[in-house]
Amino acid sequence: MKQQGLNKCWIEGKGAINGWCSIPSTITAEIMSLNKFDSITIDLQHGLIDYQTALNMLQTLSKIEITPMVRVPWNEPGIIMKLLDAGSLGVICPMINNKEDALKFVGATKYVPDGFRSSGPTRALMVHGGDYHDEANDKIISLAMVETEEALENVDEIASTNGLTGIYIGPSDLSISLGLKPGLDRTEEKIVQAIDKIKLACKKHNIKVGIHCLSPEFLKNKIKEGFDLTTLASDVRFFTEMVSKKIEEARG
């Protein structure tokens, strides 16, 4: 199977850097793909992207070894399977709060006997090769988002879910759930302890742990701490930051 940049990174024991696409555009997706990411995630939850646009963006990413992933809007098997059939090789699923949620999510990403994914990999078969069905259960990446107080309490059970690739930490929703304001790159003791608890559960059950970061410095520290996947901001944040900086320079 092609586009194994993320799995290759993990096999080599390295922390991976993930790009994040929230803008519904093949152009911005292509610009992201020209940079040194190990994977790129198309965000259908909080990003401004629908299924058809996500499909077009996946097509844009098909000529590179960077692993294409998606964040789905919710833990709903239909959209998970449809995006896998469209060629995504990884799924980040929001609001996984307990073992039952995790089992439902993982089941949607895997064919029988490991799950209940329906067979019909329309585009995936074309771009990932004739052995897609035989390889998919082993190579499709499933990342459950732990981002609520309930999920934090159940994190050990979630992390023990058979077939789950890893847990992806959503710092903003997790912070809100713990009574704090939203935001990335958190340093408050309460949220730091929560993140550490999630990481320890992942290490205990030998699965991957990922987190969304804002700054390169925070990201590098997380890789040093043993995180397997770190996302650097998003295309929206890159664009906004650069426009603000350039217009300030021009006005100054």
Can you characterise this structure?
The chain has 13 helices and 8 strands. With 252 residues, the protein is α/β, with parallel strands linked by helices. It has a single domain, classed as Phosphoenolpyruvate-binding domains (TIM Barrel, Alpha-Beta Barrel), CATH 3.20.20. An 8-stranded parallel barrel has the order 1-2-3-4-5-6-7-8, surrounded by 7 helices. Helix 3 links the parallel strand 2 (39-43) and strand 3. It is globular and about 60 Å long.
How far the N terminus sits from the C terminus, by CA atoms, comes to 51 Å
**Fraction of residues in helix:** 40-55%
Run of helices and strands? HEHEHEHEHHHEHHEHHEHEH
Number of domains: 1
Please give the order of strands in the largest beta sheet.
1-2-3-4-5-6-7-8
Instruction: Give the uncertain stretches in residue-range form.
Output: none
Radius of gyration computed on alpha carbons = 18 Å
Determine the mean pLDDT: 97
CATH topology: TIM Barrel
Helical run tally: 13
**Overall 3D geometry?**
globular
List keywords for this structure.
252 residues, alpha/beta, TIM Barrel, 8-stranded parallel beta barrel, 13 helices
What would a concise description of this structure say?
The protein has 252 residues and is α/β, with parallel strands linked by helices. Helix content is 47%, strand content 16%.
Task: Indicate the topology.
Layout: H1 5-11, E1 16-21, H2 26-33, E2 39-43, H3 51-60, E3 67-71, H4 77-85, E4 90-93, H5 99-109, H6 122-128, H7 132-139, E5 141-146, H8 149-153, H9 155-159, E6 166-169, H10 171-177, H11 189-204, E7 208-213, H12 216-224, E8 229-232, H13 235-251
Parallel strand pairs: 1-2, 1-8, 2-3, 3-4, 4-5, 5-6, 6-7, 7-8
